Amino acid sequence: MASFLITGSSRGLGLALVSRLAALPKGQVETIFATARQDNSPQLNQLVTASSGRIELVRLDVEDKKTIEEAARQVESKLAGKGLDYLINNAGTLDYNPAGLEGMDNLNQIFNLNVTGVHEVTRAFLPLLRRGQKKTVVNISTTLGSIARAQEYAQSPTPAYKITKAALNMLTVQYAQSFASEGLTFLAVSPGWLRTDLGSQRADLPVETGAEKVVDIVLKTGPHQNGKFVNIHVPGWEKAPGPNQYEGKEVEW
To answer: Which GO MF terms does the UniProt record name (predicted)?
Structure first.
C-alpha cells in the first residue's frame, strides 16, 4: 500500500492523476496527498469527498516556501511515522510568446514555477521520501524540453517553457546522481500533448489518457530507471505523423 503526493492537483493533468490513482485498489494506492494553491476546485473537492479519507487535500504553492514547509509538516503528521512513497512534481505553467525570444519577458517567472518550485518541493519532502518504501520522484517534463529535438519544435512559440523544461530535466539528473546511493529514484516523464487549459483542445490526447499512461510508468519504475527521461506509450501513436509520437521509449536529451 503506497502513498502519493501530487503537486498542482486542482486541474488538468494533476487532477486527472488524482482521479486515476483513486480508481486503483486500496491495496495498491493507500493515500493520495493532492496539493493545490487554493481549495476552490469543485472537481478536486468532489474527489476528496468521495474518497472516504483516502485523498487528503493539502495547501501548497510551489512558489511559496512557507506553504511548502507547512505542507511537509502536515503530510508527515498524516503519515504517522511512515514515509512518503511517491512524489509527482506536476505543477507547472506554459508561456505563449508569438514574438519569440524578443518577446520573452517572463523567463524568471516561468523558471521559478517550473524549476525552482520543483527543487523546493523535492528537498522539503526528501526526509519523508527517505523513509518511504518506493522512494520515487517523478518530474512531469515534455519532449519540448529535449535539446536534441529542438528543431522539431522550432515553430512552437513557447520559448520559456522549452528552456525551463530543459532545465528541469537537468535538475532531475542532478538529483538522480546525488541520491542514487540512498536508493531513491528520480525520473522525468513526458505525458504527451494533452487536452487541458494549458494544452488546448487541439491537443493530441484526452487528459485522462495522459494520466493513465503516466501512472503506468510511475507504478513500474524503480532504480533501473533512475535519471531517465521517458515518454508515455499510447498504442497507435508509435509512428504518428508530425513531431509527437508516444512509443514509450527514452527521450533524447
So the answer is: oxidoreductase activity
Q: Are strands 55-59 and 29-36 parallel, antiparallel or unpaired?
A: parallel
Q: Is the pTM of this model over 0.85?
A: yes
* Residue 60 CB-half CA count within 13 A: 32
- Into how many domains does the chain fold? 1
Least Cα distance to 64 among 140, 124, 126, 117 occurs for: 117
> Could you list the residue range(s) of the whole structural domain that residue 107 is in?
2-231
Characterize the bridge pairing of strands 86-89 and 136-140: parallel
The CATH number for 48's domain is: 3.40.50.720
Whether the Cβ atoms of residue 69 and residue 123 lie closer than 8 Å to each other: no
| In-domain check, residue 161 | yes
Q: How far is Cα 176 from Cα 229, in angstroms, rounded to an integer?
A: 11
- The set of cell numbers assigned to 75 is 503530510
Radius of gyration of the chain (CA): 17
**DSSP sequence for 125-164:** HHHHHHTSSS-EEEEE--GGG-STTGGGGTT-S-HHHHHH
